[in-house]
Design brief:
Number of helices: 0
Largest sheet: 3 strands, antiparallel
Region (Disordered): 46-69
Strand order of the largest sheet: 1-2-3
Number of strands: 3
CATH class of the domain at 1-45: Mainly Beta
CATH architecture of the domain at 1-45: Beta Barrel
Oligomer: single chain
Structural class: mainly beta
Bound molecules: zinc ion
Distance between the termini: 40 Å
Length: 69
């Protein structure tokens, strides 16, 4: 687990998210720690992750059909 080098706060539990950007590399998050340290974190897209911008005509596999009860 990644931790803040200054205070040891777990980076995954962001104290405050300043901004978030979608890039071709993944999701870039700017977070500020409880101690004031600003960190940049890049989360690459997972292999099975669907980017909404590149959505096709067909629904994604495994999605439950609508209208089922
Ligand atoms: Zn910190």
């Amino acid at each position: 687990m990644e931790e803040c080098p200054r205070c040891g706060w777990p980076v995954t539990e962001a104290y405050e998210v300043l901004s978030r950007h979608l890039t071709s590399e993944g999701v870039v998050s700017y977070t500020r720690c409880a101690c004031g340290e600003v960190q940049v974190r890049v989360q690459p897209y997972g292999p099975g992750e669907v980017v909404s911008a590149s959505r096709g005509d067909n629904p994604p596999r495994g999605a439950p059909p609508r209208g089922t009860r």
